[in-house]
Amino acid sequence: MKKLISMMAVVTILFSGTVNAQQKPEAKKEAPKTEKKEAKAEKKEAKAEKKAAKKEETKKQM
Fold first, then answer.
1. Distance of CA 17 to CAs 24, 25, 27, 34, Å?
2. What is residue 30's predicted lDDT score, i.e. its pLDDT?
3. pTM of the model
4. What's the CA angle centered on 43, arms 35 and 52, to 5 degrees?
């Protein structure tokens, strides 16, 4: 009887392990990606503005 119970326990553990391995991970949230893209776009805009300001200053000096 003890052997039967222990065998059932082993089978249950092995079966639950394979079931857990088949579960798909949850989809990642896309919000951080969009925030990163927005931050990069803002940095690019700031750089473009600085370049334009420098060009205007050099034109005024000449």
1. 14, 15, 22, 36
2. 60
3. 0.40
4. 150
Residue 50, helix vs strand vs coil: helix
Computed over every residue of the chain, the mean pLDDT equals 78
> Which has the closest alpha carbon to 46: 38, 35, 34, 56?
38
- For 37, half-sphere exposure in the C-beta direction (CA atoms, 13 angstrom radius) is 5
Distance of alpha carbon 36 from alpha carbon 42, whole angstroms: 10
DSSP state at residue 46: H
- State how far the Cα of 53 lies from the Cα of 31, in Å rounded to an integer: 33
Return phi, psi of residue 29, to 5°: -75, 140
